[in-house]
Amino acid sequence: xxxxxxxxxxxxxxxxxxxxxxxxxxxxxxxxxxxxxxxxxxxxxxxxxxxxxxxxxxxxxxxxxxxxxxxxxxxxxxxxxxxxxxxxxxxxxxxxxxxxxxxxxxxxxxxxxxxxxxxxxxxxxxxxxxxxxxxx
Amino acid sequence: xxxxxxxxxxxxxxxxxxxxxxxxxxxxxxxxxxxxxxxxxxxxxxxxxxxxxxxxxxxxxxxxxxxxxxxxxxxxxxxxxxxxxxxxxxxxxxxxxxxxxxxxxxxxxxxxxxxxxxxxxxxxxxxxxxxxxxxxxxxxxxx
Lengths: 136, 143
Prior knowledge:
The structure holds 2 protein chains of 2 kinds. By secondary structure, chain A is mainly α. In chain A, 68% of the residues lie in helices and 0% in strands.
């Protein structure tokens, strides 16, 4: 592997970190690509090659994971949590959540309580394994 | 019985750059720096904590063949390898110091949890580092 590939990996990782850090903001692919200093089209392609999924899907699963966390750990309403994790409509949020998690946000809350593990472990390990939606 | 963790190893892509980051940016101190031929055994530790050291190892000969070294370098830069967790007495104060020293790769700003306040950064190569201030109890959970 060349130094250029390592440098590209590192910049893509920096962009992925930006999604993990700023998922609550209205991020889109051009904004994330700018973190890596790569053109949006090249960014999505490279990201998928290196991390095995598109940046869109990575961010979507991070947002759903954060919503799952808030449903388990807080009393905030489903609508508030939808906007907390930067979904722009409750309908899209519920559909996406259900498609990924397999149940509605309310049903998930009913069935799950707080997890006694460090937050960083939850961030790393609790992100849903499947994604839905566009693949590019 | 085992009484202490003595040395743990992480892979870095450049020992000199790693030393600059872990000592001058993060505030750790150099422990062992032993050269034998072209091999350099380099470790760092928390100041005042001589019992536990982190060895900064560079993928390559004589430890690894070229293909294995390339795989390790790729995994490091993809952030796929394990990292380090440190304890601090003041996470927010340290966060400000790190920013002043030019650290920009935060994976998480200082965040309150029921077990304390922690933050995440990456070293220059992609290794994940968590820094935790234990014991402060947050009122409510936040994302």
